[in-house]
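Handover notes (outgoing to incoming on-call)

Open items:
1. DUF2784 domain-containing protein: sequence verified, structure written out, both below. Nothing else pending on this one.
2. Nothing else urgent.
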Amino acid sequence: MTSSWLADLVLLVHLLFIVFAVGGGVLALHWRWMPWLHLPALAWGATVEFTGWICPLTPLENALRRAAGAATYSETFIGRYLMPVIYPGELTRELQWALGVLLLVINGVIYAVVWRRRTRPK
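DUF2784 domain-containing protein structure tokens:
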């Protein structure tokens, strides 16, 4: 039971990291120090997408699920609704590249706004 809960927690952390990598630059509008946290997360997310690497959280989650005796995901909220978001079944290398480009474009726009707001005269 504990391994199952830990696996769900790892999945939730994974989802939060993805959300932060995609849109965390918006937080830089409020906190000047946020790019120091967000840009490494963005770089990691883009690297994983462009190279096809597997995030270390994925094997950790799978190991915890195996330890819990779960061969497949249960029909919990986490398993049913969050799993397909993080691990889409149709994920191809082309889609990974598209996601990587989208990740960079979204954050390029966000940081352009951040830069513009910080450099305009007051």
